[in-house]
Amino acid sequence: MGEKTDGGLLEGKVQHHGRFAFLLSEKPGREDLMLRGPSLRLAMDGDRVQVRLTPGEKGRAVGEIVRVLERARAGVTGVLRRAREGWLAVPEEGDERDAVRVLAFSAGIAPREGEAVVVRITEWPTLSSPAGGEVCEALGLPGTPGVRMRVVLRARGLPENFPDAVLAESRAFPDEVSGEMLAGRLDLRGRPIFTVDGADAKDFDDAVSLEVLSPLRVRLGVHIADVAHYVRPGTAIDAEAAGRATSIYLADRVVPMLAPNLSDGLCSLMPGVDRLTLSCFMDLDAGGNVRDSFLKESVIRSRRRFTYEEVESAMNGGRVADVDAQVRESILRMRTLSRLLTVRRMRRGALDMTVPEFKVVVDAAGRPREVVKRPRLGSHRLIEEFMLLANETVARALLARRLPFLSRVHPDPETRKLAVLGAELKKLGVYVPGSLTKTPATALQIVLQKAAGHPLEDTVNMLVMRSLKQASYSQAPGGHFGLASPAYCHFTSPIRRYPDLVTHRAVKALLQGRPEPSLARGLKELAEHCSQRERLAAEAERRSVDLLRAELLKEKIGQVFEGVVSGTAGFGIFVTLGKTGACGLLRGASAALGSRVRVRLDRVDEGKGELDLSMADMGRLAASAPAAPRHAPFHPKFDPAPKPRFHQGPGPNHDAGKPGY
């Protein structure tokens, strides 16, 4: 929950969910507080408010808004609808009660009924009257390709286009790295260094190399685009990057943090061209332990731009075109090293969760054509392990020199949530170690390892994920529960994450042996801002997938799908459709989590991305409930010594280094 004031009131930001809302926690490890009552009408999504605690159900306190301290944004989005007393802008997302009265239209703006619009608020809501404002932008009809994505961004106050001042500054940079930029840099242009990214990626943040130092020691190099060389404090580019805080990967487009000629050009580690980098070198022994490490400003010339699929093929002995012997040998050695690092990380208590990810394939016009499940490859895990290690190594180096930077923290889970998790797992027939609330890392690791390969694996992973707290940024050093790491930061993606750029500036201060007072200035506020923008971006990304998936599924109304019960509520059950990952509501039904069902798609709300389902076989619900598993993956007597699991890692846009730990 929020922070307490002298008067005993709580302060924090509001997140609306229809008829109720939450006061979001502003400190890592604190629980969000549910808000209820008529006072909810006073605040809009994201507003900062003061809240009074009142008694709630089952002894749990709820909050009542006393006053609004700060408005989150000056405008909202909605679909223009005619009402008895004029016009309303009705949000496609959220509740219709959040509709805004249209009091005026800006000059030259004449939208038609049914168009999506942006309304600048001129009258804030009261207990008796909704907000009102002026329509200042018409976005187009929601069914038009691209319009819904613009609504997704505008609804969250996320930017789309860059200001002219930012574009002008970015155009002033040279197209190539010049000789004078190389002074004092370690020249790595002759080394077998390469990048590994998704097939459609353009912003190549990171490159890797591996050098054999002796039969028992190797040197891993992680080379990261030196964005800090170009993006300096006090510039329009930096102010815009800080405001955005992250790139946004929508289903049909990328909204970059940096102007495209930087993110896709001068900073991107493209093959065959000189690029400025910050290199983290780690010397590892035969056990995967870092025996020495150092950081350098450097220049590289990537030998090749690999896709994950190509590296996966090379790892498994397949033929990949245009790969020289040095690079091929490096990939094979990297495979061995990454597996060693995984084993080492699991032994110290890190969690290893796999959550299915889906990609919406769109055509040139932005219309969805199919939904595909993202493959999880060993090559994803390889790069993930190297990025994790570099992030940890940099965090330790900065802590040792007491330099200010943004830590990436992940608090331990709450005992109460672990108890709920244990009860849910037992209902599924999953063995739950008695140490779940006392030594949760070890216990959760056992649960996840034993769920591997079982039909209920996705359900178990989902339940474990829900029991954990959210990782965030902090100006104070802190541990990372999920990674079992005492110190962690983000260093490896400065093209798409502002905290990484802050880390780079701290690294440069370390390398140049000079204090940088500006590094510590406003770090607490920056940590909160970046954490909030990260959440908004993730929400927008999920929303974009839901909307395009719903648009695609509208053509399949009446068809029958296989699904798994992924959520339960008093009014029905939520079913995830296996092939698409879409989640729909089956009203009035009840079933155990993990139950396999056959459902019919009855209705699709494209604007909200919602699906209504009905049972295709009424006799299947009871029969499909998951029975208590009786085989090895779920009980310790069949596997007394759980082994580290080599699974295929998450997709490239979900934290860790490329990936959200």
Fill in the keyword field for this structure.
661 residues, alpha+beta, OB fold (Dihydrolipoamide Acetyltransferase, E2P), 5 domains, 6-stranded antiparallel beta sheet, 14 helices, 29 strands, 27% helix
Mean pLDDT over the full residue set: 88
Radius of gyration: 26 Å
Helix content: 25-40%
Summarize the biggest pleated sheet.
6 strands, antiparallel
Give the distance, in angstroms, between the N- and C-terminal Cα atoms.
Answer: 22 Å
Number of domains: 5
Which stretches are poorly predicted, pLDDT < 50 over at least 5 residues? 627-657
Strand content: 25-35%
Find the structural class using helix and strand composition: alpha+beta
Helix tally equals 14
Which word captures the global form?
Answer: globular
Overall number of strands: 29
Account of the 3D structure:
There is one protein chain. With 661 residues, this protein is an alpha+beta fold. It has five domains: 3-70, Nucleic acid-binding proteins (OB fold (Dihydrolipoamide Acetyltransferase, E2P)); 75-139, OB fold (Dihydrolipoamide Acetyltransferase, E2P) (Beta Barrel), CATH 2.40.50; 185-350 and 377-403 and 484-514, no CATH class; 412-468, no CATH class; 557-627, Beta Barrel (OB fold (Dihydrolipoamide Acetyltransferase, E2P)). Helix content is 27%, strand content 27%. The protein has 14 helices and 29 strands. Strands 1, 2, 3, 4, 5 and 6 form a six-stranded antiparallel sheet that branches.
